[in-house]
């Protein structure tokens, strides 16, 4: 099958226009200048990773797990992503396609509706799952969160036609092709790996007024019209939805729930990173081109910054309201991206970037991995050394570390060849 890139997705209106060509880099976004000059990133000191709030050094994996990690998790919740609610008591599942041969009998397909509330007329997501037909025991699985309905990105005539949110904030049938081509699911099946995906808009729409339609509205207190300062934004809502997919996986005997990886790109790269941090049931995260608010260091003034995210015309709704208070004083923020990366330790985490994705700051992600590496080494796991040089585009030298990093030649996208590298990474660590 000829595969075009699954240019995940968010290229629809956003970052790829900024990232693909150096000549087209914007110099001003939302009224704020954008820096692409390494000489102008500014000086900064990252907040202490291996020192507790009361000033004690962290020298063992146990100290990290029992003391420092909970401290940083609270800081990330309160200052960036917001607190999210637990598993809903009325969660339920309906497998409307409970096991159909697909891809010439190579795979078994399931389509499952996950209902978040007792009222099943809304607040539901459709989950698509493929597992290898020849598997004789539960299989590992890659869980992807997508910017489009799954029938638009996978070539399988048996898929339900989903609904997506259009630019006018209305739900419409996802019955038209996307410009991004199809994803080759068979490559996962051939490797003995299951594949699942869900459309993020089923959980929460991706626009300013999405709160009035998405799952977050069901958790607003009486009289409340907006989340409190430390409550969840849309990214946390999408991450919460991924945990509800995991709740379903735990009911499916064909899936090995101790070997499930998450993958998403751009804002969904931020989402899977946060989902993996919050839900340790996910044993691996592949965060693609996650940039500012994801794996790229916020204190580096390069490409997108919190100022650009926090402008009212842009992405306020994706983060906890507290996050935007740091836009003008990022050096005072108690957290930075290296802490998010470290919060995944010791589980495998792969950061995938693009060499011309200047808006997302691939070097900022590399430096974040280097700064987080000491935590992985507390557990005896492989990670970039503190003296590591940033790999050139296409160089796989750091790919297979447990804390891995890979930069393809290209921009804000996931390329067909990237998926093969993800499979290699999964085969090593799952």
Record the SSE blueprint.
Layout: H1 16-19, E1 28-29, E2 32-33, H2 61-81, E3 92-102, E4 107-115, E5 124-132, E6 139-146, H3 150-153, E7 163-165, E8 171-173, H4 186-190, E9 194-199, H5 234-249, E10 255-265, H6 267-278, E11 284-288, H7 306-310, H8 337-342, E12 349-354, H9 362-378, E13 403-408, H10 416-429
Parallel strand pairs: 6-9, 6-10, 10-11, 11-12, 12-13
Antiparallel strand pairs: 1-2, 3-4, 4-5, 5-9, 7-8
Features:
430 residues, alpha/beta, Rossmann fold, nine-stranded mixed beta sheet, two-stranded antiparallel sheet, 13 strands, 24% helix, globular, disordered N terminus
Question: What can you see in these coordinates?
Answer:
This protein is 24% helix and 19% strand. It is α/β, with parallel strands linked by helices and 430 residues long. The protein has one domain (10-429): 3-Layer(aba) Sandwich (Rossmann fold). The chain has a 9-stranded mixed beta sheet, sandwiched between helices. Strands 1-2 form a two-stranded antiparallel sheet. Helix 5 (234-249) packs across helix 6.
């Amino acid at each position: 099958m000829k595969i075009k890139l699954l240019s995940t997705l968010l290229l629809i209106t956003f970052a790829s226009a900024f990232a693909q060509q150096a000549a087209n880099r914007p110099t001003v976004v939302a009224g704020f200048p954008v820096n692409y000059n390494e000489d102008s990133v500014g000086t900064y000191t990252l907040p202490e990773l291996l020192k507790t709030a009361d000033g004690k050094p962290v020298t063992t994996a146990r100290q990290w797990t029992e003391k420092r990690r909970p401290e940083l998790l609270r800081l990330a919740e309160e200052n960036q992503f917001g607190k999210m609610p637990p598993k809903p008591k009325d969660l339920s599942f309906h497998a409307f396609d409970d096991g159909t041969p697909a891809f010439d009998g190579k795979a078994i397909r399931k389509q499952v509706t996950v209902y978040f509330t007792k009222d099943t007329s809304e607040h539901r997501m459709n989950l698509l799952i493929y597992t290898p037909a020849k598997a004789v025991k539960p299989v590992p699985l890659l869980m992807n969160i997508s910017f489009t309905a799954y029938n638009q990105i996978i070539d399988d005539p048996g898929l339900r036609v989903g609904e997506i949110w259009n630019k006018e904030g209305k739900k419409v049938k996802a019955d038209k092709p996307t410009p991004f081509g199809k994803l080759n699911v068979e490559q996962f099946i051939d490797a003995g790996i299951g594949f699942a995906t869900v459309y993020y808009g089923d959980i929460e729409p991706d626009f300013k007024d999405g709160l009035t339609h998405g799952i977050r509205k069901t958790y607003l207190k009486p009289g409340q019209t907006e989340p409190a300062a430390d409550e969840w934004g849309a990214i946390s809502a999408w991450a919460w939805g991924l945990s509800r997919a995991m709740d379903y996986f735990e009911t499916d005997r064909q899936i090995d729930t101790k070997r499930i990886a998450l993958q998403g790109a751009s804002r969904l790269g931020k989402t899977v990173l946060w989902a993996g941090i919050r839900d340790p049931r996910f044993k691996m995260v592949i965060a693609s081109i996650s940039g500012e608010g994801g794996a790229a260091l916020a204190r580096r003034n390069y490409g997108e910054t919190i100022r650009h995210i926090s402008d009212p015309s842009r992405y306020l709704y994706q983060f906890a309201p507290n996050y935007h208070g740091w836009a003008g004083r990022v050096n005072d923020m108690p957290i930075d991206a290296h802490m998010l990366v470290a919060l995944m330790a010791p589980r495998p985490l792969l950061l995938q970037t693009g060499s011309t994705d200047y808006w997302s700051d691939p070097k900022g992600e590399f430096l974040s991995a280097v700064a987080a590496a000491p935590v992985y080494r507390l557990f005896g796991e492989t990670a970039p050394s503190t003296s590591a040089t940033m790999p050139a585009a296409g160089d796989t030298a750091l790919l297979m570390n447990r804390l891995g990093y890979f930069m393809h030649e290209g921009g804000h996208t996931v390329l067909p060849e990237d998926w093969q590298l993800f499979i290699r990474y999964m085969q090593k660590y799952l």
